[in-house]
Amino acid sequence: MQDLNDKVTGGQLSAAEWNEVPSELQNIIVAFGQSLTSADLNQLGKGVSGYAAVGDFYSTSGTANAIVLSTIGTIQAPPAYLSGMQVRFKAANSNLAGPVTINVATLGIKPVRDQFDAPLIANDFIASNRYTLTYDPLFNAGLGAMVLQKASGAVINNGVSRNYIDGFILSNNTAATPASDLDISAGQCKDSGNTVNFDLTGTLGKRITAAWAEGGTPAVPVGGMPVGVALTNNTWYRVFAIQKPTLQIDIGFDTNSGASVLLNGANAGSLGYNKYRQIGWIRYGAGVIVKFTQTGDNFEWVDYVSDFANGAQLSFASTPRLVTAPPSTRASLNARAAAGGGGQLMYLWLGSQQATAPAVQTSSNSQLASNGTVSSWVGQTNLSVQTDSNSLIKWKFTTNVSNDLSLLTMGWSDSRGKQ
Q1: What is the per-residue DSSP string for 62-101?
Q2: 26/324 Cα distance (integer angstroms)
Q3: Order of strands, sheet of 170-172, starting from the edge strand that comes earlier in the sequence
Q4: How far is CA 416 from the centre of its chain?
Q5: Checking CA distances to 370, which of 90, 144, 234, 306 falls within 20 to 30 Å?
Q6: Model confidence over 296-320: pLDDT tens digits?
């Protein structure tokens, strides 16, 4: 509408000029479905109320990382991005790793940042969820950005106990490539030093055969292996949750107990990640992540592993035995022994805990025993045995045995730092 204020030409407005005034008022009224009528003199107020109620809600199109918002019906958008301007929308897609942009009502493309002026990570937008963004002209180095207020990990779980962990369940990826990809579910925990809280709100997908990068989804996993660490067959890899001061959470692999390579300057450390918590182990076998399942702190191999089969124990000395369970966890084993003569005992224990076989009466170690009255016997049982730092246990017979011994590893349990 043109500037008609203080117009004095002949003391009158032309018909065209006068029509601009009611047209502006009528457009607000009809924008929300009202029919003009002299019977209701509150239609303008209702129109203004309509803009206040839903004027900032937009329809969504575009792609996962390049969002386009459009006004609905005859509702008008602001003429430009304004400080404090808010937009609401229902996400059409879950965003992927990498920067996210938005174009509101053709006002121009702007980046979407979190409240710390950091780029979004994968799954900050979840398909079909509703979000509110606020424009801040000072973000993005003064070029302006739409800001997503994310949940603060510093607030969540302030009252939880030391070493707390819940969730962060590991599983072989099924959406992309199970041989190389791992899914990590949402979870909350304390960091290794019990100084901050981690809050992962969505499932991440990480690839052990690619260099570490932020983000990742089960459908599109990204690298989780630090640059400079060679991927080796038949090797255990630690899985870490990591966090940077902006409270952004990610996942990566390392062989070091302190995640020192993952958090160095060539990897996640270059983006500010400085807190960590080990959430589990995976085994990279013959070019694949060995298939397993996890329930809480218990892990089970999809295919049980025969770590000793049809062998003989020909010495009374205790024998180190490598089992397919991570270091310093409790291996879930099935042991079987067959021997001639009664009174045989087989003990399994961690070598550093006891150097000699304990007395039968006081033994707290797992054991297989005959009843001492028959000439030959077979014993079989499931056992839970602590592994040492090299995934070794020790076993021992009370007398030489030439018959077959077998040891099957079914999985392991891991406190995941709760002790």
Answers
A1: E-SSEEEEE--TTPPPPSS--TT-EEEEE-SS---SS-EE
A2: 77
A3: 170-172, 181-184, 204-211, 222-225
A4: 15
A5: 306
A6: 999 999 999 998 876 655 455 567 7
Domains of the chain: 9-54 (no CATH), 59-148 (no CATH), 165-290 (2.80.20), 301-413 (2.60.120)
Nearest to 280 by CA among 248, 216, 328: 328
The answer to pTM > 0.90 is no
Unique residue bearing structure tokens 């997908």? 205
Residue type at position 238: R
Average of per-residue pLDDT values in the chain: 83
Angstrom distance (rounded) from CA 135 to CA 133:
7
Rg (CA), the chain: 33
**How far, in Å, CA of 418 to CA of 157, rounded?**
16
Helix or strand (DSSP H, E) at 29? helix 15-30
By the 10 Å C-beta count (0-12 exposed, 13-18 middle, 19+ buried), 310 is classed as exposed
CA distance 254 to 233: 14
DSSP 3-state of 357: coil
| Cβ burial, residue 67 (10 Å; 0-12/13-18/19+) | buried
Taking a C-beta distance cutoff of 8 angstroms, is the pair 220, 227 a contact?
Answer: no
